[in-house]
Amino acid sequence: MMENNQFELVLQTISTGLVAMIITETGLDEDTAMEKLYSSALYSALEKEETKVWHYSVPKLYELWENEIKTGQLTLPEY
After folding, report:
1. Which of 42, 45, 47, 61 could form an S-S bond across to 53 if both were Cys, CB 3.0 to 4.6 Å?
2. What is the DSSP string of 10-56?
3. What pTM value is reported for the model?
4. Predicted local distance difference test score (pLDDT) of residue 79
């Protein structure tokens, strides 16, 4: 497992990229994009290092987030 501060940096980097992609793809403003991301089940999973969701690319995470928004459920791929 990573040191806590290393994981926080990874989470911050991924979150920044994901918010930017949400803004680009949906046209939402930054505050709304952040609110929608941070209140999602995807972000809850992303915050927990042991889920390994942070291993996914930003485009894949966006796809998962978009699917969650459309369906109301978070479905993680099985690898």
Report:
1. 45
2. HHHHHHHHHHHHHHHHH---HHHHHHHHHTSHHHHHHT-GGG-GGGS
3. 0.90
4. 60
